[in-house]
Structure formats: C-alpha cells, structure tokens
Amino acid sequence: MDSFWQIMDVVGVWLVCFFTLAVFSFLYRDNPIYKAVEHIYVGIAAGYYFYQAFRGTIYPNFVLHVVRGMDEIAKGNAAAWATQWRWGAAVLGILL
After folding, report:
1. pTM passes above 0.70
2. What is the domain range of residue 12?
3. Do 87 and 79 contact (CB within 8 A), yes or no?
4. Which residues contact 73 (CB under 8 A, 6 or more apart)?
5. pLDDT class for 1, splitting at 50, 70, 90?
6. In degrees rounded to 5, what are phi and psi of residue 95?
7. Contact residues for 80 (Cβ-Cβ < 8 A; gap 6+)
8. pLDDT of 2-40, one tens digit each?
9. Number of domains the chain contains
10. CA distance 83 to 62
11. 3-state helix, strand and coil shares in percent for the chain, rounded to the nearest 5
C-alpha cells in the first residue's frame, strides 16, 4: 500500500509542476492551456469554499435542526413545528 501513496506523491508533484508552468505560460501569451488551468483552479476553489460553508454553517444551523424537528414531529410532538421556521429562512436565502 505504501507504493500506491508514493506513486500518488510523484503524480502530485508532476501535476503541481504542470499547473505552475501553465499559469506562467500566460506571461508569454493567452492560450487554451492557461484558460483550462484557470477554470480548474476557480472550480476547485469554489467547491472548497462551498464545502467549508456547508460544513461550518449550513449543516449545523439548518440540516441538524430540521432533521431533529422532523423526528420530533414524526413522534407526535406538535410543539416541534415551532422549530421549523428555518425552512422559510432557507427559502429566502436561496432566493437571494
């Protein structure tokens, strides 16, 4: 199993080298390789920040409370409906 991770380290180094040279190729002229690497970088950054926002804010403040509230409603606790106001906040946040 160690050889797999050693191979992945080597592949990672070559990918970093390629991406660095592709970004530096913009100094020569705007080209398709630079554009592809730019799109990949922006996509990875957007995905990372969405994940951080989801795990740090959306999951603990929305998903956990809604799941617990639905569980209480399923058990017959009518007072749990008062905790479901987060649906409205979520809809308004999505519309934003």
Report:
1. no
2. 2-95
3. no
4. 80, 81, 84
5. low
6. -70, -20
7. 69, 70, 72, 73
8. 799 899 999 999 999 999 999 999 998 889 999 999 999
9. 1
10. 10
11. 90, 0, 10
